Prior knowledge:
Elements: E1 8-12, H1 17-28, E2 32-37, H2 40-50, E3 56-61, H3 67-80, E4 85-88, H4 103-129, E5 136-139
Parallel strand pairs: 1-2, 1-4, 2-3, 4-5
Bound molecules: nicotinamide-adenine-dinucleotide (NAD).
The site of nicotinamide-adenine-dinucleotide has 25 residues, from helix 1 and helix 4.
Amino acid sequence: MSSLKNKNIILTGAAGGVGSVTAKFFLESGAIVHLLDIDEIKLTALCKELHLYEGSMYEYVCDLTNSEQLTNTFKKIGRSFPIDVLVNCAGVSDVDTVETADEKNFDRIWNINVKGLYRCCQETIPFMKKNKHGGSIINICGITKFCVRRF
Ligand SMILES: NC(=O)c1ccc[n+]([C@@H]2O[C@H](COP(=O)([O-])OP(=O)(O)OC[C@H]3O[C@@H](n4cnc5c(N)ncnc54)[C@H](O)[C@@H]3O)[C@@H](O)[C@H]2O)c1
């Protein structure tokens, strides 16, 4: 996909299942990928593997529930690169049904999958607005698993 060539893409949850496949696709397309994840070990391992791909990449260990760390990471990227695309892929899905998931677990998932996503968008949009052609945001993570069971 040549339209992604040299585009700067921030990918959260990059070290995860969906994230790592997505990272490979973007790199194959010639994009410049900024890989974010809380898991430093998985992120480092992924980056070693991704060196074979065409595009360039940068890695950032970042906990999306740590607001200050999130702000600093996005500012670091946005001040050095034009942000063209944000892919919100970080998330947790180890939930059960509405009936069985306890409130503490729900709050944890909410803080990562919903508030984390909101904060990433909030930090990115001002940078995207400075671009001549704006930017795109793709949201992959969600909490719909709570609602899809039949009863
Ligand atoms: N796997 C699927 O088929 C599928 C389909 C649709 C949507 N989703 C959603 O997409 C998201 C990712 O799915 P996955 O299968 O890749 O999950 P995954 O667990 O393999 O990857 C999630 C990644 O997010 C990272 N992460 C977790 N908490 C974080 C935090 N606080 N800060 C930064 N990074 C954090 C994890 O370290 C992990 O690398 C989930 O929210 C899931 O519900 C998954």
